[in-house]
TrEMBL record:
Residues 28-93 form the Cupin type-2 domain. It comes from Winogradskya consettensis. Pfam families: Cupin_2. This is Cupin type-2 domain-containing protein. The lineage of its organism: Bacteria, Bacillati, Actinomycetota, Actinomycetes, Micromonosporales. It comes from the Bacteria.
Length: 107
């Protein structure tokens, strides 16, 4: 067992907290009004919104997000947070671990 105490604290950007071969978990935080620069990942991911408000936009849909929202984004799907009106914090779970499937140039 491992307690991941540092997960979920608002600190703008990405912070990985745990990694194994099968998954990784971290916190992704975006200040209100900021632009989300992320590009598609080579691994599946789950976002658990813990604080803030905004939207998650993909080519096929845009959904409002707030604390308690849980979203699955498949590997390779374009997505980004938009319209962040309150500092947004999400726990992010990658399966397998982030960059496991990436080529060295993509990291």
């Amino acid at each position: 067992m491992k307690i991941i105490e540092e997960a979920g604290a608002f600190q703008p950007g990405w912070a990985e907290h745990f990694r194994s071969a099968d998954l990784s978990i971290g916190t992704y935080a975006i200040p209100a009004g900021a632009t989300d620069p992320q590009t598609p990942h080579t691994e599946d991911e789950i976002y658990v919104i813990t604080a803030g408000r905004g939207r998650l936009t993909t080519p096929s849909a845009t959904v409002d997000v707030s604390p308690g929202t849980v979203i699955f984004v498949p590997a390779g799907e374009e997505h980004r947070f938009t319209g962040v009106t309150e500092n947004l914090t999400a726990l992010v779970i990658f399966g397998p671990a982030e960059y496991t499937r990436a080529t060295p140039a993509a990291q």
